[in-house]
Design a protein that fits this description.
single chain, 320 residues, 1 helix, globular, four-stranded antiparallel β-sheet
């Protein structure tokens, strides 16, 4: 694999992407993927209780860490090297902070009483957010096992930090987005955007675009909503991908905020232009199941997508 660094993403370059490598380490569905901030490693968690770490520059699998006792979901790198946080799928709903090089837990974050469905690491420091089916949103600091803040909501929460790490957004009841200042979030949201209530689906993910201007709401249906992050007005509804299994399909921005990528339950990958909302292309991927995870590398010209298998995508050489 030859990963390009400084290359501009254009529609022809996006259309030229091809699967360069497929990894078949997992025996069950990959439930989360996360690139390190430097883009040189990728971490995945899966339903077979494995954490797999990949070397993005070499296009190889570095190592596997098993989490047989607690299971693993929503794995994320922290800012410290070789550490990650993850949610649990067995025993309890505690969030765990793991040292990857010796496979030892550094700290536990207990508090949630039902499945954790949202986990977001601050882009700037040791704070992270978690949201659970117990209808709470919790704010944590990696250095303390005690929850730093707790919010009670009326439904399953989705939440994420903005790219500066100064505010966070929470999606509530699949109908409103509330923005909180991290320094004074206990005073309530400083902005609240009411959108049309979703009648056919539920919001399952929330992300800011890397430039901070757009909020992406992914759902358990074949709909992705884009919302202006400053004024709260809906800008586009992205459709056309298949989600007949009501899965929480991930959608992600490219690092320049220009394109949105999403998987599909038929194994395909769809790409839209974020500003215009038009479909750029659809890839028939090498996936034999629903593509639930998809992310673009923050530093390199590379895309990763996961079903039971992990695929690394690169632009084809004739487009360089």
């Amino acid at each position: 694999m030859h990963i390009k660094g400084e290359m501009k993403l254009t529609e022809p370059v996006v259309r030229s992407f091809r699967v360069a490598k497929v990894f078949k380490e997992n025996t069950d569905r990959i439930n989360n993927i996360d690139f390190s901030p430097t883009g040189d490693t990728l971490i995945s968690s899966s339903e077979d209780d494995q954490i797999v770490i990949y070397d993005c520059e070499k296009g190889t699998q570095k190592r596997t860490v098993n989490s047989k006792k607690y299971g693993v979901d929503l794995v994320h790198f922290t800012h410290a090297k070789n550490t990650a946080i993850h949610a649990s799928t067995k025993v309890d709903d505690t969030i765990r902070y793991l040292s990857l090089h010796d496979n030892k837990y550094i700290r536990y974050f207990p508090g949630h009483t039902k499945k954790v469905v949202a986990l977001s690491m601050s882009p700037v420091d040791d704070m992270f957010l978690s949201g659970s089916m117990d209808k709470t949103l919790r704010l944590w600091d990696l250095r303390s096992p005690n929850c730093q803040g707790l919010m009670h909501l009326t439904s399953r929460p989705v939440a994420a930090f903005d790219p500066e790490g100064l505010i966070f957004a929470a999606g509530v009841n699949s109908e409103s987005v509330k923005l909180y200042d991290l320094r004074s979030f206990d005073k309530g949201p400083f902005a609240s955007f009411r959108l049309n209530t979703e009648k056919t689906c539920e919001w399952t993910g929330l992300k800011f675009s890397p430039d901070g201007k757009t909020i992406l709401l992914s759902t358990n249906s074949s709909i992705i909503r884009l919302v202006d992050a400053f004024h709260g007005n809906p800008t586009h509804t992205l459709t056309g991908h298949l989600n007949d299994k009501k899965l929480p399909l991930e959608a992600s921005f490219s690092p320049d905020s220009q394109f949105v990528f999403s998987g599909s339950t038929d194994g395909r990958v769809h790409v839209w232009h974020a500003e215009s909302g038009h479909k750029v292309c659809v890839f028939n991927a090498d996936h034999n199941g629903p593509v639930q995870c998809i992310q673009f590398n923050p530093k390199y010209m590379m895309l990763a997508s996961g079903c039971n298998n992990m695929a690394f995508w690169l632009p084809s050489e004739d487009n360089s």
